[in-house]
């Protein structure tokens, strides 16, 4: 029994250590998730900002009368390659964040499968086993206590029987002695010869010996039962203490399960965010590659309108963070303000969609920009109307970065710092 108790205690201690380590890991993962989310998201947006700056250089490259300007293949290819590389880096950052969070998610799921669920099963099995043992022990204690009560009654009865027999023997001996003396006196000594008969004619001493043997045997059984009840009470105390520890361990498990579940939910939330971030980055990469592919395939046949639509689509799709807003607006303003001729409806519609999305997002910085309605030469009904509330804003010249990149001369090649 002692070896069994030691094994049970060792198993319980091992389980307690396993649950303690299992509890700490989800608590460690949650701060890690916060750190990864902040770091990877920041790096991805940083890369997108850089990519949009390179996109702005492409917008500057096509400003003015691009279709009739001398074609600079080298600068064209270099600008597009830099933009593709920048968007590729943004996608890789988003993908790294997604994979890192997915890895932690998988770790929590595995922790739940390999440790939390088995620990819960082990605790419940231990509790059931000890509860059954405790119940059996209690039944044995009750039976032993009942037996002890019966034994005590029996010992009391036998003790009384011994007392009665001893009294009878004593009374018999005393009576015989008196009778012998009287009889001897009356018969002038002849009675001494007659009285040499058995001192215990009723064999009371034999009955007393039997009663004493029975009493001693009953007393030994009672003593053994007393030692057994003491041992059983000790076993019950140990079982109750162990069961209490196991119940406490079981009561702690919901906290462990909740911590793991919360970590899983947080992982799912972050994964969804990074999936969107990666999808957006991938979409932007696809678009800039489409531009690169289109210009490579068509050469000078890839018109400014095609460039402008592609760049404005990138502007529209990159609005996943207000940190990219300024760069996107720079590109949009460069395309529209420096178009160098009548703006095609398709381009104007894209510009209007961009401004509408900015307005819906609430990112319009009224204090930072000077909003002046202006007329843009376009067939599009929503672009260029001086009284239309959705006319395109003009950025403050002080906030325009055009002067950093261009020295415009009509019909001449524009050299852009790459």
TrEMBL record:
Protein name: NCU06412-like protein
Species per Swiss-Prot/TrEMBL record: Diplogelasinospora grovesii
């Amino acid at each position: 029994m002692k070896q069994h108790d030691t094994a049970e205690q060792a198993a319980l201690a091992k389980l307690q250590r396993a649950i303690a380590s299992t509890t700490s890991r989800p608590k460690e993962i949650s701060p890690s998730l916060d750190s990864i989310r902040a770091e990877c998201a920041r790096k991805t947006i940083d890369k997108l900002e850089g990519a949009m700056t390179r996109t702005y250089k492409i917008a500057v490259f096509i400003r003015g009368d691009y279709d009739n300007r001398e074609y600079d293949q080298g600068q064209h290819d270099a600008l597009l390659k830099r933009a593709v590389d920048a968007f590729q880096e943004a996608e890789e950052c988003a993908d790294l964040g997604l994979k890192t969070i997915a890895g932690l998610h998988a770790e929590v799921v595995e922790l739940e499968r390999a440790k939390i669920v088995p620990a819960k099963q082990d605790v419940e099995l231990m509790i059931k086993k000890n509860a059954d043992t405790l119940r059996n022990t209690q039944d044995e204690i009750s039976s032993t206590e009942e037996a002890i009560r019966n034994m005590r009654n029996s010992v009391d009865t036998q003790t009384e029987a011994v007392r009665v027999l001893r009294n009878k023997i004593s009374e018999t001996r005393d009576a015989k002695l008196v009778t012998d003396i009287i009889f001897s006196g009356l018969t002038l000594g002849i009675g001494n010869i007659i009285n040499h008969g058995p001192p215990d004619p009723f064999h009371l001493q034999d009955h007393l010996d039997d009663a004493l043997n029975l009493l001693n045997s009953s007393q030994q059984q009672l003593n053994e039962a007393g030692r057994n009840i003491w041992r059983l009470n000790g076993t019950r105390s140990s079982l109750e203490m162990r069961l209490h520890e196991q119940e406490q361990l079981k009561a702690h498990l919901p906290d462990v399960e909740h911590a793991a579940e919360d970590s899983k939910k947080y992982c799912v939330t972050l994964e969804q965010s990074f999936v969107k971030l990666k999808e957006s980055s991938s979409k932007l990469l696809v678009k800039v590659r489409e531009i690169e592919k289109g210009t490579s395939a068509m050469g000078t046949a890839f018109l400014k309108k095609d460039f402008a639509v592609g760049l404005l689509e990138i502007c529209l799709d990159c609005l996943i963070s207000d940190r990219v807003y300024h760069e996107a607006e720079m590109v949009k303003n460069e395309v529209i303000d420096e178009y160098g001729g009548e703006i095609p409806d398709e381009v104007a519609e894209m510009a209007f969609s961009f401004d509408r999305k900015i307005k819906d997002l609430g990112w319009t910085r009224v204090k930072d920009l000077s909003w002046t309605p202006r007329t843009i030469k376009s067939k599009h009904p929503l672009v260029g109307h001086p009284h239309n509330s959705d006319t395109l804003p003009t950025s403050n010249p002080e906030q325009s970065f055009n002067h950093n990149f261009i020295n415009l001369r009509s019909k001449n090649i524009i050299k852009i710092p790459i």
